[in-house]
Amino acid sequence: MKKWNLIIDVAKCHDCNNCFLSCKDEFFENDFAPFSAAQPRHGQRWININRVERGQYPKVDVAYLPVPCMHCDEAPCIKKSKDGAVYKREDGIVLIDPEKAKDQKNIVETCPYDVIWWNAEMALPQKCTFCVHLLETGWAQPRCVQACPTGAMRVYFIEDSVMQKVKKSESLEVYMPQYNTVPRVYYQNLYRYTKCFIAGSVALKDSDECAEGAKVTLRKGSKKAADEAMTNNYGDFRIDDLEKESGKYRLVIEYPGHKKKELSVELKTSVNLGTIFL
């Protein structure tokens, strides 16, 4: 049967917080029985936005990662709750029953993504509901998706087999796959948050001009090229989507009429090599 899936493009998120604000507007002081109790004014973010800064001045990259409930198919919160307090609907949405979950604070600690919050006043764990109360009345998407001004968020209500084809065709990934929770939230351009890059500029020493169109090849050991890039009209290049703490690389720079140049780079985190003169 068809199930709900959320896709988030990290490259399109600019930390405007419209998703968070629309969620707060929808759920603050509003009970939507039997799906959820009212969200408190302060202390909870049913969709949080994580931030990471990569590189060094002047080549700095900032990425934002919206993190709602992942609505996992293998949700730890379901397995560790009592009396069916957390359950998964046939359409893929995971919900916390606001009656059965009372006093079960342990549910908060079960989530590896830290997206379940404790409402001390109500003695209740709470989280994103995928705006299921709206979907039940014919809405095509949750409030956060509707409010996103850059199109960084979208939903698919499709069969799992079709979703797997979408995942492959759009190069979608899940966040923290090592948890094996089988999330129904997928990310595009996740490398902007989880991976690192090597960047720099290439210039010609004899003329002090930018080396536009220089070929930059990244190699690891004797293996074939890990990646390649061409410098732009400012002589800048960036090779991204590299694993952190991945060790030593050889950076080879080639430009017509100039001697090939090689550099050794120890990659721990994103690095700006500055200006490299040929």
Strands, total number: 17
- Main sheet, how many strands, which sense, barrel? 4 strands, mixed
The percent range for strand residues is 35-45%
SS-derived structural category: alpha+beta
Indicate the percent of residues in helices: 10-25%
Overall shape: it is elongated
The top level CATH class name of the largest domain: Alpha Beta
Number of continuous helical runs:
7
CATH topology (level 3) name of the largest domain: Alpha-Beta Plaits
Calculate the mean pLDDT score and round it: 96
Measure the end-to-end span. Answer: 60 Å
Describe, in plain words, how this protein is organized in 3D:
This protein is an alpha+beta fold and 278 residues long. It has two domains: 3-193, 2-Layer Sandwich (Alpha-Beta Plaits); 196-277, Immunoglobulins (Immunoglobulin-like, Sandwich), CATH 2.60.40. The chain contains seven helices and 17 strands. The strands form six sheets. Strands 10, 11, 14 and 17 form a four-stranded mixed β-sheet that branches. The chain has a four-stranded antiparallel β-sheet with strand order 13-12-15-16, with no helix packed on it. A three-stranded mixed β-sheet has the order 8-1-9. A hairpin with a 2-residue loop joins strand 2 (48-56) and strand 3. The longest helix has 10 residues, at 18-27. It is elongated. The termini are far apart.
Give a quick set of tags describing it.
278 residues, alpha+beta, Alpha-Beta Plaits, Immunoglobulin-like, 2 domains, four-stranded mixed sheet, four-stranded antiparallel sheet, 17 strands, elongated
